[in-house]
Protein 1
Amino acid sequence: MKSPFFPRSPAVEMPVIALKEHPFDPYRELLEFQSSLGENAAKYGAQSIFIGTMRDFNEGDLVQRLWLEHYPGMTERELARIVSEAQTRWAVSETLVIHRVGEIRPADTIVLLACWSAHRGPALDATRYLIEELKHRAPFWKKETLDSRTRWVERNTPA
Amino acid sequence: MSIQIRYFASLRETMGRVDEQIVYEGITTVGEIWKTVNQGRPLPDNILCAVNLEYASADTSVRDGDEVAFFPPVTGG
């Protein structure tokens, strides 16, 4: 999170990137983040938010729960790289990335992504970039528990 | 030289181990490391790899003390 030793500037902020082992409320996280912006909130005319949740079906089967594995160290590094690329391509100043790991139940939030910008175009484009790159590059793997068996998800669904 | 190898997800289950350490003489590559632990078979297209937490390829060189990881296509988000 933000350090009190580095005063906030209108330039690009350090992104907040977190992996969570337990369920989280994305709306509460957004509220807390928004509150933390303080007077800087007035610089942003647009926030774009993506929330990905667990479906209870996949490839025609009911899914009871998911296990989300990751590569500690590399996952955080790759997420930071993706955010950095987005901040280079678009004028987004604040970025929030929270992703679950571990056991996940249907309707649980898997990922929360949010970008703050002066204008809607950069905010929307950067958020779309974050989710697509995350799905293709960030080292996470899903294992589904069905009624009587488990299986690894082998590929992403199309956007 | 000593190299730490890690496996993830379905590949970890196929390999039957989370990690292993191998000792290798001379300069080597990710592809050669894979062959060493897979009876000489080449690295399949559908297995991704990383060296020291960065994406790599079969040609990436590996040095003493490096961590090499192999894993299937990613499915987060």
Protein 2
Amino acid sequence: MPKQLLNKENIAWLASAIVIFLVCSVLMNAGIINSYYQITLYNICINIILAVSLNLVIGICGQFSLGHAGFMCIGAYSAGIVTKMMPNLGGLFLGLLVGFVISAIVALIVSIPTLRLKGDYLAIATLGFAEIIRIIVQNMKITNGAAGLSGIPRLTTWPLLIIGVVIALVVVCNFTRSAPGRACLSIREDEIASEAMGINTTRYKVIAFVIGAILASMAGALFACNFYVINPTQFTFNRSIDILVMVVFGGMGSMTSSVIAAAAIGILNMILQNFSDIRMIIYGLALVIIMIFKPSGLLGTKEFSFKKLFQKRKGNR
Amino acid sequence: MSQFLQQVINGLSLGSIYALIALGYTMVYGIIKLINFAHGDIYMLGAYVAFITTTYFGFSFFPAMIASMVVCGILGVLIERIAYKPLRHATRIAALITAIGVSYVLEYTTQYVMGSEVKTYPTLLSNVSFSLGPVTISMQQVYIFTITIVLMIALQLIIKKTKMGRAMRAVSVDEDAAKLMGINVDTTISFTFLLGSSLAGVAGILVGIYYNSIDPLMGMVPGLKAFIAAVFGGIGSVPGAMIGGLFIGIAETMVVAYGSSLYRDAIVYLILILILIIKPDGLLGKNQREKV
């Protein structure tokens, strides 16, 4: 049976995306989601893209990267510089494209030597690369050094964000179910065994890493065009950890849980805004406690799927 | 030439502080294969303990140093018992994330209790300097270097000559076999954390004196650099940590002196990436074959 693009579950997914989009738009227009909540909502969307893209690297491929902020930084600066010259939607797309190309090239350069490393060495190497990216950005003329870029036109809109989230989710979920995606899963489960089965482990790790980097740069571009101002201190090691926290809280390898965790942490951040020290202590404790009692994250690798839902309902009948 | 020598002297004193922190990383990594991200924060706490004991209780340098060592050592053991022990057989990623979590708790608890502002460190050692030919050496640098060397030799003696040291080496080679030989693995690992953390405590007070200021987030970057020093020297090797620390310290001061201070951190990460690509086992590390 040929696979239909518009089967029941795909329509259900599309419908739910449209419903979320419309509900939030109506609420925003009606002023129920005021500008304060709107910032949180936009942040959540950007964080979802980041969490999902990091989850591809950590959860699906099992490669521990601590350098996601570096790629976000590349995306943010590319979009910031281009849109300052071309303050319209075309500029944003051009900026996105530039960001994709640069981050893909950088990801290739970073990943080919470092992905031969394992586990914690890889984590430190990616961390080092991300810091180098940040330091280079901090010392370049075009990026305006440590002061950062300001006056970036505000081009990120709610429809664009939703499209970004949907693209990120579709890319990652489809990749996971493709042949390279399954190769990545097997690398996560056992690298030596998958190598013995004839999988070119480095190649698939690089593919996953590059896709993750491109998606992170997309999130960075949306971030830059949302906040007017970007500077290198926004893309430190701490940002990478923030993204990591979302992936870990939700569950490594589950996109549903990344989305939920990004949303929950976004709301939690808004509530605890005035207690930033306590918030960080809570995060730290939560990381330790989750790792001790449920190392696979709160939801593990469980995914929400309409297919299962439909089957269950059929079964009940 | 005289400027070069001067930079070498400065680099040596900075490097010996890195070396002290690197020792903790290298011992812990050698024994349980965990990058103890919280180690940099233990060193930060060491600086704070010495700050509190000297400012509020009027301790002089050596009692304050002992106090830092004791507090940090106990803290290291507590962290190991509470956070790392349940995860000893979990995946490496899980252990690493726990370490990051512990590091967050230490940093922000300190920030919550002590405030986030930079604190000025009391002058504990005389900062008289004297000239030795073309270079100027301050007494602080002499103290830092001497203390580091003495501790390093003491550590080497503990590891090579005592029963506990032999147990540590045994556990780092093969935990299960060590257990079968009647070694108490838990105690040995705790002892490793005790040693490493108390050295980090000393590094904390030394860096406080050297830079004159401390803040709750000061542990992160030097912690990473010390880890890089440990990797450079060959992780698991005590002399390697010393060489790595001194090398990183000198490289960093040279970049500041002859290049741009903006790139002082970048050079360290560059060294890390180069060493990982060229010789991942480090200078003095043993080549370990992968076992299936």
